[in-house]
């Protein structure tokens, strides 16, 4: 029997000076993308700050959207209905990455590549929307008709396959969910990734100076 489940794409704008610097280049108010596996946004993953008070240490993170860091954030939340198999495949891919979390870095130069529409690849490195698009693509899903390394958070907002269910203050959505009936917890089963290609790329090294230059404005 064919069954479906929902995932959520969460776009946020934290209002920090880092976020405002990105907005200067993108002209979009919401410049951070995450993928969530529940409507209450308790299991949310992305590439961003590992510690709220340290913008210079970025990588793969499970985000706590109830942290004070996000309290004043604006957000847009999109529902994406997928098959049960694809849902489980994406969840398993992310959990596999989380088991080796420290291996992954934030791909700052990849963001620069978007400006010039080139693929600046690095070993085990992603930026937020690149990561979300890659997880979706590994399940055979492409809500944005672009290569993963060129996908921006704003691209998700324009996808006809995604259904916007909320736009406004993040704390407003979280408060709303607290007063709503809880949906049943999904059941996860192992799903093989055999035949879907290698998930991680081997890329070029970047200089320390290049990293420091971009760290000054590109994480959130």
Automatic annotation (TrEMBL):
Which InterPro entries does the entry link to?
Papain-like_cys_pep_sf (IPR038765)
This protein is called Permuted papain-like amidase enzyme, YaeF/YiiX, C92 family
């Amino acid at each position: 029997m064919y069954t479906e489940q929902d995932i959520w794409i969460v776009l946020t704008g934290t209002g920090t000076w880092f976020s405002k610097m990105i907005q200067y280049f993108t002209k979009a108010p919401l410049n951070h993308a995450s993928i969530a596996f529940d409507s209450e946004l308790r299991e949310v993953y992305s590439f961003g700050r590992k510690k709220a008070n340290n913008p210079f240490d970025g990588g793969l993170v499970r985000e706590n959207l109830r942290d004070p860091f996000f309290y004043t954030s604006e957000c847009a939340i999109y529902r994406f209905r997928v098959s049960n198999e694809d849902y489980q495949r994406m969840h398993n891919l992310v959990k596999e990455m989380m088991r080796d979390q420290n291996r992954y870095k934030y791909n700052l130069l990849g963001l620069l590549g978007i400006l010039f529409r080139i693929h600046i690849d690095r070993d085990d490195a992603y930026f937020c929307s690149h990561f979300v698009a890659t997880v979706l693509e590994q399940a055979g899903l492409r809500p944005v008709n672009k290569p993963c390394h060129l996908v921006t958070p704003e691209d998700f907002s324009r996808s006809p396959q995604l259904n916007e269910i909320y736009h406004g203050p993040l704390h407003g959505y979280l408060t709303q969910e607290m007063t709503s009936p809880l949906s049943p917890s999904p059941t996860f089963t192992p799903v093989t990734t055999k035949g879907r290609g290698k998930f991680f790329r081997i890329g070029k090294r970047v200089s320390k100076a290049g990293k420091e230059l971009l760290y000054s404005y590109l994480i959130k």
